[in-house]
């Protein structure tokens, strides 16, 4: 009889997307109710949280399609909750961000859920991303300095003596003159200025240099030797300049836009 009762109690586990949608609707409803109780408008919440109005509205309405990746949704919920005097980290930790399905807890199991560990995992991920970005930038600068030093080293006298006499004449063989490699002469630099708080991802030469939300008024610069890719969820809120030229908006406000810029040889 016990085996039959346990089998009857089993239910189909919802997918991770269904869990996110359900939990977002639940948390968004609580945030909306708290905001209404405090008499705050969405515009006032934008000033308190530095989060675009459309993202705050999407959270309250439980609209996953208008929000970025789950890990950033959790961060937005935490900021929103902190501004309404909740414990933001604890409040947001219930929003699922992993790809694994959450198995239902049996009624007889009173052990603590692992959801309490999620904020720690999130902080560790943030630290890893910061260390990875700093390490990548350091390697890029070291490689550039090494290439610059190598280009300044004169050719070895022993190697010159092995060449035929006619090749040792600089005026007779202009094609054999030292030529800087294309990789050393290529470079591209972009700078961004935030008109409003926006999510941005920057990829330099195939490596992610930055991914996150930058507040209004932020100014950042990135450089690559081959190609830079910039993606944002609020194209109208980002002013971008290429190689110190005049800055222009990446696109329309509230639109997702991705721009790829390839390096060109310097004149």
From TrEMBL:
<keyword id="KW-0812">Transmembrane</keyword>
<dbReference type="InterPro" id="IPR010982">
    <property type="entry name" value="Lambda_DNA-bd_dom_sf"/>
</dbReference>
<dbReference type="Pfam" id="PF13413">
    <property type="entry name" value="HTH_25"/>
</dbReference>
<keyword id="KW-0472">Membrane</keyword>
<dbReference type="InterPro" id="IPR050400">
    <property type="entry name" value="Bact_Cytoskel_RodZ"/>
</dbReference>
<dbReference type="InterPro" id="IPR025194">
    <property type="entry name" value="RodZ-like_C"/>
</dbReference>
<dbReference type="Pfam" id="PF13464">
    <property type="entry name" value="RodZ_C"/>
</dbReference>
<feature type="transmembrane region" description="Helical">
    <location>
        <begin position="122"/>
        <end position="141"/>
    </location>
</feature>
<keyword id="KW-1133">Transmembrane helix</keyword>
<feature type="domain" description="Cytoskeleton protein RodZ-like C-terminal">
    <location>
        <begin position="192"/>
        <end position="259"/>
    </location>
</feature>
<dbReference type="GO" id="GO:0003677">
    <property type="term" value="F:DNA binding"/>
</dbReference>
<feature type="region of interest" description="Disordered">
    <location>
        <begin position="1"/>
        <end position="20"/>
    </location>
</feature>
<feature type="region of interest" description="Disordered">
    <location>
        <begin position="152"/>
        <end position="184"/>
    </location>
</feature>
<feature type="compositionally biased region" description="Polar residues">
    <location>
        <begin position="11"/>
        <end position="20"/>
    </location>
</feature>
<feature type="compositionally biased region" description="Basic and acidic residues">
    <location>
        <begin position="1"/>
        <end position="10"/>
    </location>
</feature>
<protein>
    <recommendedName>
        <fullName>Cytoskeleton protein RodZ-like C-terminal domain-containing protein</fullName>
    </recommendedName>
</protein>
């Amino acid at each position: 009889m016990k085996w039959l009762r346990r089998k009857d109690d089993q239910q189909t586990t919802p997918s991770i997307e269904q869990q996110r949608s359900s939990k977002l609707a639940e948390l968004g409803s609580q945030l909306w109710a708290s905001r209404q109780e405090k008499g705050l408008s969405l515009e006032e919440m934008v000033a308190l949280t530095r989060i675009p109005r459309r993202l705050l509205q999407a959270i309250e309405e439980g609209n996953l399609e208008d929000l970025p990746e789950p890990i950033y949704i959790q961060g937005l919920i935490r900021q929103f909750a902190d501004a309404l005097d909740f414990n933001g980290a604890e409040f947001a930790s219930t929003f699922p961000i992993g790809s694994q399905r959450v198995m239902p807890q049996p009624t007889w199991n009173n052990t603590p859920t692992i959801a309490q560990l999620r904020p720690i995992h999130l902080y560790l991920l943030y630290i890893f991303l910061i260390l990875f970005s700093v390490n990548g930038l350091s390697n890029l600068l070291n490689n550039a300095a090494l290439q610059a030093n190598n280009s300044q080293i004169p050719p070895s006298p022993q190697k010159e003596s092995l060449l035929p006499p006619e090749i040792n004449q600089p005026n007779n063989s202009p094609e054999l003159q030292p030529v800087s490699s294309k990789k050393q002469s290529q470079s591209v630099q972009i700078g961004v200025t935030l008109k409003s708080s926006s999510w941005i991802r920057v990829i330099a030469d195939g490596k992610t240099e930055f991914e996150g939300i930058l507040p209004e008024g932020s100014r950042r610069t990135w450089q690559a030797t081959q190609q830079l890719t910039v993606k944002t969820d609020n194209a109208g809120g980002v002013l971008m300049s290429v190689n110190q030229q005049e800055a222009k908006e990446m696109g329309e406000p509230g639109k997702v836009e991705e721009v790829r810029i390839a390096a060109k040889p310097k004149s």
